[in-house]
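hey
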């Protein structure tokens, strides 16, 4: 006959099964069969509490009739809920020597008697004296009987092993629940981002269709580039959460996880989830801002126009709107009657954006300033236009970035970071030309544009 010492010898095998992530039912079945071994007529069962902590959830009863254990599922614990339900309710052992006569079984004795069960002793399962009850370990007999020391030894040894198994199951369920919740949140944010990107693509299609910006594809590329930072942060956060989860699973497998470590894990993943949310919200805000920056640029018909008229007309409009600084303008065009053939409206938008940029940046802290616009014909077919100011100049660390989309040193002060980017795209795409900048801090800034006098739409730049 096996005794409690034999059961203790089986402990390492049972723990090894847990480490190998064997299903809880298989581990418990093995344990209960070891307890029953050598005691004729003994039937054991393990019942856990469901997620509400109030109802029975049978986990293992390898020798009991399934018809009996199935009827226990969902029954509520209480002061008169059989042996197991009462033991879990009280948090203390319950011994019923005669199911037919004991008041604890009054409502449920028919379930046991019809399967030939007459006595039942149950121990509540918990990790420690002050820990919550997780379930119960019970012994059934087909005759009226009280437990002897041999039974108690086996119950006590089995109780500790069952506690480990139930704790592992509880932790696994918590992790699964948290992982599913985390995946759901990530899917939600990913869906929101995908929807935002779809809206961006629709906006792009509309703007291209209306020909407000011929090169919107490049602008969208700039938006997508700007989105890389929040999206990258979100991806890093999700990757970090995955690594944390893998470490948590490893600690559970090695039985080294403490409650404190588990709570730290929950806190860290919560912080990472918040970071994912903040970055995706930032990406959505960026896309929303892009919608507002779609400039109403009509598709002007190709025509010939005196270059001086284009410059002076835009200066007239700009002068009427500028406030806070007195600017002197010097316009020089050689020859005086130089005519361009192409899209005067595009060149006008380039000049307007450069004027606004000078007002916002070059003369930000000044009451007076000078702007010189010089244009001349080069090689009979190319125009070189220089737009220069005597403002504060551009620092070295900013000069290489001024044509980047959304780059501005005036965040919250009127700078959108799109003005010079649009200048660059319009010059290189619509005017088929080039632009560069020359500047030193304190010495002003000069933009040098070159573009063909006659724009050929068949030329791809």
């Amino acid at each position: 006959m096996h005794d409690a010492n034999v059961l203790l010898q089986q402990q390492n095998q049972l723990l090894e099964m847990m480490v190998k992530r064997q299903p809880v039912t298989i581990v418990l079945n093995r344990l209960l069969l070891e307890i029953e071994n050598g005691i004729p007529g003994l039937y054991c069962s393990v019942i856990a509490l469901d997620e509400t902590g109030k109802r029975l959830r049978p986990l293992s009863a390898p020798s009991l009739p399934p018809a009996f254990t199935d009827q226990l599922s969902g029954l509520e614990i209480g002061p008169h809920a059989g042996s197991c339900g009462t033991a879990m309710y009280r948090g203390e052992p319950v011994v019923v020597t005669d199911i037919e006569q004991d008041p604890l079984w009054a409502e449920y004795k028919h379930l046991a008697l019809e399967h030939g069960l007459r006595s039942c002793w149950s121990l509540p399962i918990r990790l420690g004296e002050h820990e919550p009850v997780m379930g119960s370990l019970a012994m059934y007999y087909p005759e009226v009987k009280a437990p002897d020391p041999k039974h108690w030894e086996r119950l006590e040894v089995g109780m500790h092993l069952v506690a480990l198994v139930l704790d592992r199951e509880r932790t696994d369920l918590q992790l699964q629940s948290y992982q599913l919740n985390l995946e759901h949140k990530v899917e939600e944010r990913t869906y929101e981002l995908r929807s935002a990107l779809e809206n961006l693509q629709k906006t792009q299609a509309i703007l291209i269709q209306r020909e407000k910006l011929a090169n919107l594809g490049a602008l969208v590329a700039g938006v997508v580039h700007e989105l890389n930072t929040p999206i990258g942060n979100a991806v890093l956060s999700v990757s970090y959460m995955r690594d944390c989860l893998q470490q948590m699973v490893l600690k559970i497998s090695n039985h080294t996880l403490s409650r404190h470590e588990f709570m730290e894990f929950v806190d860290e993943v919560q912080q990472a989830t918040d970071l994912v949310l903040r970055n995706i919200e930032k990406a959505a805000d960026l896309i929303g801002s892009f919608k507002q920056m779609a400039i109403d640029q009509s598709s002007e018909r190709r025509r010939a126009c005196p270059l001086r008229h284009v410059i002076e007309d835009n200066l007239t409009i700009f002068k009427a709107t500028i406030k806070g600084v007195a600017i002197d303008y010097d316009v020089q065009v050689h020859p005086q009657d130089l005519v361009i053939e192409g899209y005067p409206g595009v060149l006008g938008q380039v000049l307007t954006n450069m004027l606004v940029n000078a007002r916002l940046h070059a003369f930000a802290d000044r009451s007076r300033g000078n702007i010189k616009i010089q244009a001349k014909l080069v090689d009979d077919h190319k125009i070189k236009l220089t737009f220069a100011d005597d403002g504060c100049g551009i620092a070295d660390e900013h000069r290489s970035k001024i044509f980047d989309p959304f780059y501005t040193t005036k965040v919250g002060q009127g700078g959108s970071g799109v003005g010079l980017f649009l200048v660059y795209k319009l010059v290189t795409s619509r005017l088929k030309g080039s632009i560069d900048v020359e500047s030193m801090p304190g010495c002003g800034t000069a933009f040098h544009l070159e573009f063909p006098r006659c724009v050929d739409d068949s030329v791809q730049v």
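Residues 156 and 275 are 47 Å apart (CA to CA). The longest strand covers residues 368-378.
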